[in-house]
Amino acid sequence: MRLERSWTTGVLVGAIALATGGWLINQGGAASGGDSRRLLEEIHRLISARFVDEIPPEELYQMAIDGMLENLGDPYTTFLEPRDSEDLRLTTTGNYGGLGVRIDVKDDWITVVQVLPNSPALREGLEVGDRIIEVEGESAEGWSVDKAVDTLRGEKGAPVDITIARVGVDLPLSIRIVRDVIQVAQAQGFILDDEIGYVTLRGFSRQAQEELVATLDRLIEQGASGLILDLRRNPGGLLPEGIDVTDLFLERGAAVVETRSRLDEQNYQFRASNGDRYAGIPVVVVVDGLSASASEIVAGALQDHDRAVVVGTTTFGKGSVQTLYRLSGDNSMKVTTARWYTPAGRSITRDFDRESALRNLAANAVAISGEPIAAPSEPEDREEFTTTGGRTVYGGGGITPDLIVYRDTLSTEEQELRRLATRSGAIPRNVVFRWAVGYSNDHDFNEGFSVTQGMREEVWAALVDAGAEIERELFDQSRTYVDWLIADELAGAEFGEVPQLRSRAVRDAQIQVAIDLLMEADSPEALLTVAARVAEERGADGAESGQTDGDH
Fold first, then answer.
1. Which CATH number fits domain 1-93+186-408+508-552: 3.90.226.10, 3.30.465.10, 2.30.30.40, 3.30.565.10?
2. Which residues on neighbouring strands pair with residue 436, listed in sequence order?
């Protein structure tokens, strides 16, 4: 990347979670004094000495910090205790000391849902479906994922003793695993429909651009004539990685992103420095309401330069920049010090109210995968901007896709099945997961398997055995949802992460639209033409729904 002006301090870091965002990390200074500071100290002494209930002085200081930050009205300006800083380090590097498993809570037990390649867990024989029932002699029943992660992570070379319960094995198994450095893969990709390269990017940690290049190059060698870059549920990561990912698709010298601050030394203009590595190849970027920060930088820049067509739903709207300041006691503070702008000059920052955002999320539809769909509402009176080729794009409130396409959602019957089964303690995904582990152990089948009536009957029996209080008619009316769960969990249990991702992609309404666009286009210019035609056919907003009530 190339800067328009010199930059000598700090490291640029992007979003680590939806509540954080793009960061400018540098060394901070001390605040100025004055009468207000003296007044604050007087109030602290008075409350400490005279308040009816005794409150430790350190708690009073924490109250003052919390109150000050809350009244700023900015969710991204936060105080970081030492543990928070360590979480930041783990997230931005993508490396941690651990076992190399992905876990989830299934029926009140921490359960292995994936074993990573070349990991200590794989070497010691852990399998998908294993329940971790003890850690260092302590029962793990009722543990949260956070507690399990905190306990199982540790320094490289440090052993941990766990006890597992395994499907088909009568007695618990005791295993000692020596922790190692775990590298979390950021990019995964494969070919769809024989000629479309699909890559999902989980985040923007330090190896993201390198992994993305390796994946895209492999797909091009395998004959991909068009590319899908899936940034859904990607909260961001290191800002330089976001810039470098964007650089892969832009001509040398093209603007990537600009940061603006009231502090002159934090005003930067970033430009592409390497040239378009995939020139001539049409690209579709898929986004949703959980695509944030660095994801929005990529989507916004490629949209502004007419280099890609953006498909999905409007992004999160995280367009501010924070500076991380080191404080005493290994504490830190990140403060919003700038905003970033797309090449067309757009600020995509959404006015954010945490409570209303959570209410909005809870009120939205449920995807067929069972996840709530984050689809932020479009703000009114959005400012219009123009892309390099003269297309209209919008500022404020996230990146609006060129084609708005919603995810498949559960029908009324499927939502009722999920609700009733869950209420009776038989969460459908958990039941199907346990069934899939057993089925995988007992049967041989290829990755291209089809869901059979026999599989459905076994899942129905498993739900009944788990106590699900549902009618058979409701189960039969929910076939799309049931088949999705069976295909997803069987692919993961038998073949692993990439086949599971492929299984999801071929059943995904947004990905299917991306494939259809790319199948018609042999160049980036042709892709824009196809997308414009499709948008016109759909109407003014270019929106297309996924599965709706009663529609299978």
1. 3.90.226.10
2. none
